[in-house]
Target: Acetyltransferase (GNAT) family protein
Amino acid sequence: MKTAFQAVLKKYQPAYMEQLKAFELPVEQAQFTAFPIDLLQTIEDEQHPVVVILADQEPVGFFMLHTSARVAEYTDNPHAMLLTALSITYAQQGKGYAKQGMNQLASFAAKEYPAVNEIVLAVNKRNISAQKLYQAVGFQDSGRRKMGRKGEQLVFSLPL
Model:
C-alpha cells in the first residue's frame, strides 16, 4: 500500500509526547520492542537520542539511537551508535513509513552525529519482518549473536 505522505526523521520534541503516548502495537509486535512513552519516561540524557518518524507533521514512528556504553555489547567500533525500539504505531503500519524512515537513517546520522560511522542494532531471530526491513535498507548481518529477553538476537550493521 502506498502512502500519500513522505516520512521524515526528526529529533524528539516535547510537542510529540501526547501522540507518542497513544501509540498502539499488537501483542505479537510489542514483545519485540518498547512503547515510546515507556522509554521517554526513563530517558533524560543525550546518550539516548530519541528520533521520531513524522508523516504529515504527525508522529507515526519512533526509535532511539544510543551512544552509551551499551554500544560496545554489539560492536567494537568506538564510532558506532546503537539503534533500538523502532516501532510504527499500529494504525499507520503498512504504509511504508518504517522503510522510508530507515532509508533516511544514514543521512540523518551523518548530519546530526558526524563522528558516527556505523549504526548497529539487534533484531530477534523470530522477527522475520524486521530482519527483512533492515536488510532492505542496507543493514547487513554482522554474524554476531546476543541473547535477549525474548531469545536469540542477530546483530546487524549499517556502515555510514
Notes: Residues 128-136 form the longest helix (9 residues). The chain has one domain: 7-159. The first strand starts at residue 7 and ends at 11. The mean pLDDT is 86.
